[in-house]
Amino acid sequence: MKILNRDVDYAVRALVLMARNDRPATPVAGMREEVRVSGPFLRKIMQKLQRSGFVHSVKGKGGGFALARDPGNIRLGELVSALQGGIRLNDCVSGGKLCAFHSACKLRGRLASMEGRLLEELAAITVKDLA
Q1: Per residue, what are the HEC states of the chain?
Q2: What is the pLDDT of residues 83-118, one digit of tens each?
Q3: What's the fold here for domain 6-130?
């Protein structure tokens, strides 16, 4: 089971790379090799990051993408929410209906508690911490 999907994984790599750079903008072509993903897929991820307000595009010579926020203010939990929606360890749903054991299930509460702790941990990690 993966907790973070590949969009989040590549987005974190790209944001960390940008946080380490001294340049005002980083072109996708320059990120591709270090992030280890194809150019078209990385562009899609960067567009998602732009729509979510994590980066902005810089046009013209020396253009590319730049962080829209300080790396210390970009939290991993926010990236997860923006790029994959959230983290669910178990949906407790069968065929669109609640399972027959939903109200008496002892596991459901524990899973919800673990999800909460995991989200707290992700919210505590910033791009600056990873850079």
Answers
A1: CCCCCHHHHHHHHHHHHHHHCCCCCECHHHHHHHHCCCHHHHHHHHHHHHHCCCEEEECCCCCEEEECCCHHHCEHHHHHHHHHCCCCCCCCEECCEECCCHHHCHHHHHHHHHHHHHHHHHHHCEHHHHC
A2: 998 777 777 655 556 677 777 777 877 888 888 899
A3: Arc Repressor Mutant, subunit A (1.10.10)
